[in-house]
Amino acid sequence: MLCDLRKTAQAPTVNVNNCTFCYAPMETTANANTPLFRFATNAANLNITNSIFGPSMATDGSAGAKLQLYTPGAKGSVLLNGASTVLSVAGSYKTNFAYTPIGADAKTYGIEGLIDFKGSETDLWTNPAKGEFKFNANLDSEAGASKWK
User: Which of 14, 39, 78, 120 could form an SS bridge with 109, CB 3.0 to 4.6 Å?
Assistant: First the structure.
């Protein structure tokens, strides 16, 4: 989890600019209660600009002994839990992972407004599993952390 702002006295504003996220957050397959941005019902402003999101990681069950990727269509990335969050997204992308419905109300916890990159994280980046995020593919954008360009 990057931030947990479920209880604040005033509505916080979180600015995410030129960031690269991949394999974050780390969830358990037992439940999905640690999204990357956790606001719950707290009013908040989340501004995302020129950033890129790859898929989440997961652990098997709640013990967390074995790491695995969330599987598109079966186990999806959990990025934003914010019922009262005002979201602004510009020039930002996600790889081809899917958000998976969770719970009785089939909540997906996605970030609306991200542009779909038509490939996986390994299509986009050199070796994300080893922390190498130089671009394999041409992404005609200023998105992502500058150190990887």
Answer: 78
Q: What is the pLDDT of residues 6-15, one digit of tens each?
A: 888 888 899 9
Terminal-to-terminal C-alpha distance of the chain: 25
Predicted confidence (pLDDT) per residue in 21-74, tens digit: 988 877 665 555 667 888 877 888 999 999 999 888 766 655 556 666 655 444
Identify the domain containing residue 23 by its residue range: 3-148
Q: One-letter amino acid identity for 95? A: T
Comparing C-alpha atoms, which of 72, 63, 121, 69 is closest to residue 101?
72
- Domains in the chain, number: 1
Rounded to an integer, what distance in angstroms lies between the CA atom of residue 58 and that of residue 25? 8
Please state the pTM of the whole predicted model: 0.82
Hey, how many other C-beta atoms are within 10 angstroms of the C-beta on 108?
A: 16
Taking Cα atoms as reference points, which of 53, 58, 57, 56 lies closest to residue 112?
Answer: 53
